Amino acid sequence: MIEVRYxxxxxxxxxxxxxxxxxxxLVEHLFPEDDIRLxxxxxxxxxxxxxxxxxxxxxxxEGTAIGTPHLLSYREMGIANLGGSGRVEVDRRTFDLENxxxxxxxxxxxxxxxxxxxxxxxxxxxxxxxPSQVDYPHRLITxxxxxxxxxxEEKRSNRRSLRMYIHPEVSPSGLLxxxxxxxxxxxxxxxxxxxxxxxxxxxxxxxxxxPEDRVIHLMGRPDDTRHLVVADGEAILSPAWSIxxxxxxxxxxFVWSMTGxxxxxxxxxxxxxxxxx
Length: 277
Description:
The protein has one helix spanning 18-25; strands spanning 3-5, 26-27, 36-41, 47-51, 58-60, 75-81, 86-90, 93-97, 102-105, 112-116, 125-131, 139-141, 147-151, 160-166, 177-183, 189-190, 195-196, 200-207, 215-221, 224-230, 235-238, 245-248, 253-260, 269-270. By secondary structure, the protein is mainly beta. A hairpin with a 5-residue loop joins strand 3 and strand 4 (47-51).
């Protein structure tokens, strides 16, 4: 069963309560043990998923809920491992993923099985999927193979290392982009300066937070912002019309995924911090 989210227009969020905002844009409880959770959003038809195989493997791939023979009949997927060593079987092929490795799964895959090497330190699989009209082969992209970018400034508390995994310069895809950002020691701000992706939506999952810490995620139109308080393992759906930026009360990292009209990572509309309201 796939949960469906319909999103919202920018003019509606001013009337939303905290719970309305959370139920629309925040995905909680994304990593069930020995099971999988999938969330389908009508925001560019992205699917988010999470699974933590502890005592058994987790298998998925059936597509009835979205009206196709298989979940990936007309979709591509990225699977990031945010935990201990794990394995992904895609039809008859096997891929071993270490922490911060990402597997690109091309269109047409029918059956996927997730498992952990050690149930005491299980894998923590996070996945995003978007429609695709092209065929690219499955590919494992290790952390060492990702393309790193050093961004931000220590004096502005936003120094961070961004690694591109599913990206034309590393591993090609139809429309999916996916990578991982780690903040430097002492930095708290991500995605600074804020900007809009009018041609693409984005999703995030925040991870490696201590249980007591939170990320304060800011969203909305630049002149009408709102916030979401996000815990470890929770994901954000960020529409094209919304800014996205945040600050953490402690160390954290996040996986970003994008889809839309193009794959130009730098195709953004910057918003000065002084213009935010």
